[in-house]
Automatic annotation (TrEMBL):
Residues 52-194 form the DUF6593 domain. Residues 209-240 are annotated as: Disordered. This is DUF6593 domain-containing protein. Pfam families: DUF6593. It comes from Phanerochaete carnosa (strain HHB-10118-sp).
Amino acid sequence: MLLKFSSGDFHNATAIDCETGAALFHISTPEPMTRSRSPSVASFYSFASSSSVSSEPSPPAQKTTFITDSEGAALAEVTWRDRYYATSIRIGERSFNGTGEIFDAHYVKCLPDETIIPTQLEYKWRTTPDSLTLLDDDHNVIGRLYENYTSTNCKLFPASKRAPGHNYLRLNKIPDYELLEVLVTFLLMTTLRERMYWITTYVYGSQAGRQSKSPLGRLRKQASRSFAGWREALSRKRRD
């Protein structure tokens, strides 16, 4: 199966089956509602905040990603805190208390060039700064993310600079009843990659070979340590 995402924002996109052209999943993440204040109240709060020496920190922002089918029926949802942290996950009738229950934290591997994160389905996501692949229990690649590609008859080609492409997710040998959960873990992994590898993608470019001796190289090492911290957080959730 080859899924085409209608938008570069995976949290607000439609996943289309390239073979049939059917929209299989709609993914949306509405902005949280904020209460509006009257001008007089707003002016008072503005004055109070500017006159106060210290102020209470605002609570973390929360968003919810909804996954529906082509007819709008709810299939799954993920609640996020501060954009990157999934605090609760629902897939059909099943609920998960954060990522620690949908990933197998005991077997996460943080290697110098890649990180492997198993799921409860016994698949493994392998992420690097340049790729995201899904592995089966024998480490065979059964899924891959293709970023900025075009497709012709379900065959993929890198997009040209003049005509930007779309993002595609190719999945092989995934049973239909596991597809939704694989999609949810895919959204979690793309969010994790965005958090951990934006430095490499945005700053380093082709200078990756020289980055280890530079301040930016040290910053990348800090990002790798942060990845290890994320793994420990998963382990703590599993123990709790």
